[in-house]
Design brief:
Keywords: Membrane, Transmembrane, Transmembrane helix. The chain has 19 helices and 3 strands. It is mostly helical. It folds into 2 domains: about 200 residues, no CATH class; about 180 residues, no CATH class. The longest helix has 30 residues.
């Protein structure tokens, strides 16, 4: 399949696997030790932190012209994607829709969100469709019922997308993508019109995840409304945590499952199976992988519970499973970079090369017909270093953010001991991630 990505063997690593493992685990442990002695009080201010941008830049960012331009770009891309997916050939070798969807949209918006912040919330074309349907469906007051649903609609949508990408045997089929995008868009547009704009903050899996990644952007909006430059560590606290843990564990589990499928024994197992049983096996393995990583997280939180400080008078009990949810965001991003970096650079080129004939009519709109992907733009060593580095850096950022939160909720006399379960979790995730990107 054209949509294959990542390293293809342990021999691609520029250092021995054991050294990569020891380095990753040591980096997490050393960072914890340093924090334990030098970061003794909570320091992160969340959405109250940041240095305001110049007023001229703020006016441009908040201008109607920029908002209209982003919305127009999002809508045009959505229409072109659906048109190519439905009307073009049903082969990812000749139809750009597969690359546009998996690389330009999924990975591209992650990158844009990391750099510019909550850009997708403005450009989301499904919000535009919902506004068009709102006069027919919306009634005031329905937004309140969304609180009962938490983020489970978004989790269901993300799970459907990840199943299509990682499990469905014909995941690169433009027609399969067309069906998924059409059904997803109709569901989101109707629900958004029925419940109002708040639906997209809870129900649109893509917007929910892109917004979480945007917390790591150096740009954000402070509580007083000013657009600021801030530390990503403060950005991690800019938003709710309750209910988001399953979203992030789903992303972590899916990228881990992607690594599992590149272990040599996986194709040996599924190749003899029919497409139906391949899908069944993949579904079970994906669910098991997500469940395993979730069980690790739940176990670490269960071991942490005895060290929690008692709530002060009038305070609600600590939501332990949500308290550390923000620390999973850099883990999810690190895993995503590790598993999709080379795929994005190489396969991303195909999005432009194939756009010269999007409907398979023999056109050559951009003069790129017959041009191939340039695989020389990245060396194998650089790919491996980015993969391992992304996992290590992601885990270090997670340790820092988790440590700051632990200082707030763990009893002072156990402020070190009480963090050992979470530290063990981070080391375990690090080892799993490095082993799988090396495709042992």
């Amino acid at each position: 399949m054209i949509l294959a990505h990542g390293l293809h063997g342990r021999s691609d690593l520029p250092v021995p696997l054991w050294l990569a493992l020891y380095t990753g685990a040591a980096a997490v442990l050393v960072s914890f030790v340093v924090l334990a002695f030098m970061w003794t009080k909570p320091r992160l201010a969340g959405a109250d932190a940041g240095r305001p941008l110049p007023a001229l830049v703020e006016r441009f960012v908040d201008s109607r012209a920029l908002r209209f331009g982003l919305q127009a770009a999002g809508l045009v891309f959505f229409v072109l994607l659906l048109a190519a997916a439905w009307a073009g050939t049903n082969s990812s070798f000749t139809n750009p829709a597969s690359t546009w969807f998996y690389v330009w949209f999924w990975l591209g918006v992650i990158a844009l969100s990391l750099v510019f912040g909550r850009i997708y919330r403005v450009a989301n074309p499904l919000r535009i469709l919902a506004r068009g349907l709102a006069p027919l469906l919306y009634r005031p007051g329905r937004e309140a019922s969304l609180d009962k649903l938490a983020f489970w609609p978004a989790i269901a949508g993300l799970a459907g997308f990840l199943w299509l990408e990682l499990v469905y045997p014909a995941s690169d089929s433009p027609r399969a993508i067309a069906v998924f995008v059409t059904l997803y868009a109709l569901t989101m547009a109707v629900a958004g019109a029925y419940y109002g704009p708040k639906w997209f903050e809870r129900g649109d899996g893509f917007e929910v995840y892109f917004t979480l990644i945007a917390r790591l952007s150096p740009f954000g909006r402070r509580n007083d409304g000013r657009i600021v430059v801030r530390s990503p560590l403060n950005g991690l606290l800019d938003g709710p945590s309750h209910g988001l843990t399953p979203v992030l564990l789903l992303i972590l589990g899916s990228t881990t499952f992607d690594g599992v499928t590149r272990i040599p024994m996986w194709p040996d197992f599924v190749d003899p199976l029919t497409p139906f049983w391949t899908a069944v096996a993949g579904t079970i393995a994906l669910a098991a992988t997500v469940g395993f990583l979730s069980a690790m997280y739940v176990g670490a939180m269960w071991l942490t519970r005895p060290y929690l400080r008692k709530p002060r008078r009038g305070e609600p009990p600590v939501d332990l499973y949500g308290a550390f949810a923000h620390s999973l965001i850099p883990l999810a991003l690190g895993y995503t970079i590790a598993h999709y970096f080379s795929f994005a650079i190489f396969q991303g080129q195909a999005g432009f090369l194939l756009a010269t004939d999007p409907f398979g009519q023999g056109w050559d709109l951009f003069g790129t017909a017959g041009t191939g992907i340039n695989y020389a733009v990245l060396s194998t060593g650089l790919i491996a270093l980015v993969q391992v580095g992304a996992i290590i850096v992601g885990h270090i950022v997670a340790v820092v953010s988790a440590h700051d939160r632990a200082l707030q909720i763990i009893r002072p006399d156990y402020k070190k001991t009480g963090q050992y379960p979470a530290l063990a979790l981070m080391v375990g995730y690090t080892v799993i991630g490095i082993v799988l990107v090396s495709s042992v």
